[in-house]
Sequence to fold (82 residues):
Amino acid sequence: MPHFTPPARIERAERHSPIWWDKHRVGITVLKENGTYVEVIEPSQERTLAAEAAYVGGYRHEVSEDEAADLTSAGYAANITA
Fold:
């Protein structure tokens, strides 16, 4: 069964001093709405529940072969693993 890991971005976290900072990864949630995949940083619970499919950023999700094919055609081929 294939797995999908939504993309992430690197953010810079400021510290008390401007010369001290830290980088951390922020997972991007991928929602399937009306057959189209959209990326959302902080989706509301209502939007997540209303979506046809919701893949929360920062997690690995098991998907069907058909869903993996749809995600691949939407440009997420690099995020699909066996």
